[in-house]
Structures are given as structure tokens and as C-alpha cells.
């Protein structure tokens, strides 16, 4: 990593079911990873007897996207989303540092002695607060999310408020799927640091339709690659 600043591009999928329209989301996540975007996913588990296999797809998505995965009940979504955000930033930085260590000293983080490893972990945690963050939230708004959508909206606002306290610049975009007028996905909010702008985008979201997770990932990837990096930032 060079310079005092950096920028990390992250995408997180929030869904309660498996994709059933368009490109395989695992393939889409791999495309995003290849473009420098880390893809993680959270599967929402119903407390009403739903088959948990409906959200097992999130593991394959996050594995292909180089990110992390988790499951939670609706009541725990806010806490899970915020924890996942911090973990994914640190995870991405850890991968970068480990790769550089391998190049410099021939060892990655898993092989260096414990005292040195702790110093590296401490550096990553501190740097994670300063790095600039482009963060695309890809939200499932299919029919099955009808009773969970308002809660999901509230959790996303909670996340935006938490991100506002970071030292680095945090810009969040919101992509919903399916989109309006039979589109696979829609941009509810382009990248912004303003909570008020995000709230306006969230107000427009309604649940209905199928679950085109793969196309939504590709839409989020395109939006993220179009967005310009903050001034004087360096990609890591």
C-alpha cells in the first residue's frame, strides 16, 4: 500500500433466498472480484420455519467474491451488518498485507511469528479506520422480503450513521433487486456520504417479484467501477 490514504471497494449482498433469475450469482461475484471488488453476503433466516437452505447460497457468493459470509435472524441484522462491514475491510487489508509480506520476506501472515503478527493485525485495524471506503449494498427486495424490508432499511441507515464516525471517507450506494419496470436491478441511491440522500432512496423501495441476485451484482459492479475515487486517494 502506498501513500497515507487508500480506497477499498466492497459490496455486500443482503438476501433471504436463492437467486432464481439471470446469471449465476457465484459467477457474477467472481467477475466483481476480478475487477478489484470484494463481495460479501448476509443471509437472513426466517423465524417462521423457512428452510435455511434458501440462504446457503451466500457462502458460495462470498467465497467467489473473496469476501465473508454470515447468517442472522431479522432482529440481528443491524448488528450483523455493522460487524460484517468492519470485518470485510480488515479482511481485505489483511489479504493485501499478507500478499506483500509474501513478496518481501517469503512468508504470509499465517507463517510469521506471533509477536510480529500481532503488530501487523494492530496496523490493519488502525489503517482500516483511515482508508476510504466505496461500499455498495445490494439489497434483496423480492416478494419474500415483504415483512423484512422496513427493518432492512432501518439497519442500512444505522450502518450509514456508524460509518460517518470513521476517519476515512465512506461513500455508500444502494442497489435493489429486482428493479422497477421488469428490470433486474435498480439504483436506489448512487454513492453518497449523506444520510439524508440515502434515506430518500430507501423510501422508494417496495418488495415484490423474483430474486435476480446475479444481475444485481453485475449492476453494482458497473456502478462501482464508474465512480471516481476520492481526491488524492490511492487504490490498495
UniProtKB/TrEMBL annotation:
InterPro entries, alphabetized: VWF_A (IPR002035), vWFA_dom_sf (IPR036465)
Superkingdom of origin: Bacteria
Residue intervals of the VWFA domain: 134-236
Pfam families named in the record: VWA, VWA_2
The protein's name: VWA domain-containing protein
Organism name: Lutispora saccharofermentans
